Amino acid sequence: MKQLDSLQKMMFFSGLALVTGGVAVFGLIQMRPVRRPDFAAAMARADNYLLRQNYAGAFKVYDRLARYYPHSGELFLNRGLAHFRTANFTRALADFGRAAQDKKAAALAFQWSATIYSLKRDYAAQLAAAESAIAAGADTHDAYALRGLARAGLGKPKEALADIDAALSRNSEDAFLLLRKAEIEYGLSNFKAARRDVSSAIEWGPGYPDAYALLGRLELKAGAADKAAAAFENALRISNGEAKYARLLASVKPGAKQKQNGTGGKAASAKSGKSVKSAKPAKTGSAAKPGTAGRRK
User: Fold this and answer.
1) Average of per-residue pLDDT across 256-278
2) In the chain, N or C terminus with fewer CB closer than 10 Å?
3) What are the tens digits of pLDDT across the range 29-40?
4) CA 95, CA 60: separation in Å to the nearest integer?
């Protein structure tokens, strides 16, 4: 009988040890820390996805990183840029807003926000974002260009010219910005300055039909109808026969036929031989591209 009791006790304590041991093992599994993904390696994977235009893959990487690095300005700046490239401006702005909370990423985040607002022609928001970018340290061509174009859109031409000059001092070959400056000067009746700047715009970017249209109007102001007609013909040819340039040509050369060269538009008088560029609200060449904001945690 005593032997049976001893056997039962032994079985009881063995079972208890098994159960408690199982609980301990289970507890270790539950308490095991989850490894954070390596930031630099994960961002490199996202870069590779973007190079292959696999945005779904890139967003999957960014979204996972966001759970572990919720305060990384670089992460949200790059994810915002990826949203920008897919034209999802709402999500891009949200990510740029988060990136702006990081002082190291704030300048570029505000600058890209201003770029989106320029595309939406929300000049008040564009001005606020551009000013925030400059205040955060964005001493760049793009930041001053965006602020100047916003001021022009809000009917502040003199302030706009000051900013555009600041931008051009950092990149004097921006044909679109030179054209916008010339248009503002024309509106202020500063025809000499407008001629100088539109000529520079044509030299650096011969693919802008609006530049030739403005040059034609300046020639009319100077009483040179033949030169105006030649400029309008260039605008018409570059635009492949756009109606507004046909009307300008007809105003000085009644009965003129629309001529199209079918090339997509290098002007015959272009000096630089550069390929045609489409007009954009503001260049962003010096701003970061997805995956290039610098690696840091």
Assistant:
1) 40
2) N
3) 455 666 889 999
4) 15
Mean pLDDT of 288-293: 47
- Residue range 143-181, pLDDT digits in tens: 999 999 999 999 999 999 999 999 999 999 999 999 999
Q: Is the distance from CB of 287 to CB of 80 less than 8 angstroms?
A: no
Record the pTM. 0.75
CA 268 to chain centre: 32
- Lowest-confidence segment of 125-139, 142-156, 202-216, 243-257 by average pLDDT: 243-257
> Mean pLDDT across the chain, nearest whole number?
83
Q: What is the CA radius of gyration of the chain?
A: 31
Query: Token digits for 266?
Result: 């290098």
**What's the CA gap between 230 and 280, in Å, rounded?**
25
Listed in sequence order, the DSSP H helices in the chain are 2-31, 39-51, 55-68, 73-85, 89-99, 103-120, 123-135, 141-153, 157-168, 175-187, 191-204, 209-221, 225-238, 243-252
Q: Which of 213, 216, 211, 264 is nearest to 237 (CA)?
A: 264
| Look-up of token digits 């000013």 | 131
Q: What pLDDT is attached to residue 254?
A: 81
Mean pLDDT calculated for residue range 9-16? 46
CB 176 within 8 A of CB 205: yes
Single-letter amino acid code for the residue at 134 = I
- Residue by residue, DSSP assigns 77-140 as HHHHHHHHHTT-HHHHHHHHHHHTTSHHHHHHHHHHHHHHHHHHT-HHHHHHHHHHHHHTT--S
The Cα-based distances of 89 to 11, 76, 188, 198, 274 in angstroms read: 68, 14, 34, 32, 31
Establish how many alpha carbons lie within 13 A of residue 49's alpha carbon, considering only the half-sphere containing its beta carbon.
19
Check: CB of residue 48 under 8 Å from CB of residue 60.
no
